[in-house]
């Protein structure tokens, strides 16, 4: 019980922290949208929340793919670590990080190059020009670091598969609570509604700095001889 409960608790805390981050973002969108020159007007007041909802739907689709790939590694990592084949676990980690980066890169290209088409998928063809302009800007800013977001998510889950719930949980909490909530509250003070959008890529970049340290540490540990 003591060995597997912390691993489940890691996922629980990760989901709770994600909810906290989204609550902070939604609150800041409402607060700073209300004082925006355009979106402060009654007829346009719902645009920021609606647009960010669309952006987050796309984000969740991509992240679900990233999580699915990482979760698929869990039994394979456990089997090979148990069999004393750290070399295979290390090689799998490399494949996972490359795959996560590819998924994130493709998602970033789609968000940057085809935001109009993404908006149309969600039935926004007849909306105002303010809606379209804000939606395009939101996709391009909010999702510009999807490649790092996917790599970070893969790192969270891989650490969990190695039986390191503390490191995985702290990394996840740093992303969603320390950076996600923190920058969602801080950046709008200086940049208004745009600050909410910038909170996402800034959080992903800073989280990746921590992830890079943990990735390097994990590679070193997987090169060490297996204990008898």
Question: Would you mind describing this structure in some detail?
Answer:
By secondary structure, the protein is mostly helical. The protein contains eight helices and no strands. Helix 3 (86-113) packs antiparallel against helix 6 (146-161).
Overall, the morphology is: elongated
What structural class do the secondary elements suggest?
A: mainly alpha
**Spans where pLDDT lies below 50 across 5 or more residues:** none
Indicate the multimeric state.
single chain
Distance between the termini: 24 Å
- How many whole angstroms does the radius of gyration measure? 19 Å
- How many strand elements? 0
Encode the helix/strand succession as letters: HHHHHHHH
Mean pLDDT: 89
Strand content: under 5%
Major beta sheet summary:
none
Into which percent range does the helicity of residues fall?
over 70%
- Number of helical elements: 8
Write the topology of this structure.
Layout (H helix, E strand, L loop, with lengths): L4 H29 L13 H36 L3 H28 L1 H7 L7 H14 L3 H16 L3 H27 L1 H31 L5
Tell me briefly what this model is.
With 228 residues, the protein is an all-alpha fold.
